[in-house]
Design a protein that fits this description.
With about 230 residues, the protein is of the alpha/beta class. It has two domains: about 150 residues, Rossmann fold (3-Layer(aba) Sandwich); about 60 residues. The chain is about 45% helix and about 15% strand. It has eleven helices and eight strands. The chain has a six-stranded parallel sheet with strand order 5-4-1-6-7-8, with helices on both faces. Strands 2-3 form a two-stranded antiparallel ribbon. The radius of gyration is 17 Å and the shape is globular.
Length: about 230
């Protein structure tokens, strides 16, 4: 059976922090929302709704979450990611893993539209076997969604997925059992998703995760060559 390597995006493949922050700030301004602790509490990587609950605990509602997601997309999807860059050496390592016969895919909390636009900019579609995001079945092309559901053997569309469900979906699509799958990420959502699916996890120190989050990984590496 072929091995499957799943890579988180934000903080693992690329430093996306500045562009995400700027899109968040613009969205908060559009909605006239005051967030005095933004710089202290914001972290790139978690789903928009989860981050909003942290930043705006007293103001958050499901309706506000919808507005934030929509506004963020309007800013983020059209700026061209001018301040985003790949971490040195990470794509070289992905290519080596693929050359060894493994499957390599992106599994991200990032919005599917943004993930695909970024993959197009950096040429990742030529490197990875697939790009998967938590909202892809809720917002993607209907034909593509139907194909994914059929390939995964799912009778019903689960809609927007948290990271554990997304990882499980990708494993079903590729027909890979847990012992042949590894997830590479930088924050606790990655390592929790790996644990809930019974797969090995690798934490990278160049991302956004804190030492306590990285402690949840099965293994921690300081450079792409160690993956």
């Amino acid at each position: 059976m072929r091995r499957l390597w799943l890579f988180d995006l934000d903080g693992t493949l690329a430093d996306t922090d500045r562009d995400i922050r700027e899109a968040w700030k613009a969205t908060l301004a559009d909605l006239s929302l005051d967030c005095p602790n933004f710089e202290r509490d914001f972290v790139a990587g978690p789903p928009i709704e989860d981050m909003a609950r942290t930043l705006l605990p007293d103001a958050y509602t499901d309706e506000l979450g919808v507005l934030l997601r929509r506004g963020f997309g309007e800013h983020y999807d059209h700026d061209g990611f001018p301040n985003t860059y790949e971490y040195p050496g990470i794509l070289d390592r992905v290519r080596e893993l693929k050359a060894s016969g493994a499957l390599v895919a992106i599994a991200t909390n990032k919005r599917y539209v943004g993930a695909r636009l970024m993959a197009e900019k950096f040429g990742w579609f030529d490197v990875f076997d697939g790009v998967f995001a938590g909202d892809m079945l809720a917002t993607g092309d209907p034909a593509e969604t139907a194909d994914i559901l059929a390939r995964a053997g799912l009778a019903e569309n689960p809609g927007k997925m948290k990271k554990p469900a997304l990882v499980a979906l990708v494993m079903r699509l590729y027909g890979v059992v847990p012992e042949f799958c590894t997830l590479v990420g930088d924050t606790k959502s990655d390592f929790i998703a790996a644990k809930e699916n019974g797969i090995h996890s690798v934490g990278v120190t160049w991302g956004y995760g804190t030492p306590s989050e990285l402690a949840l990984a099965d293994r921690v590496v300081d450079s792409p060559s160690q993956i």
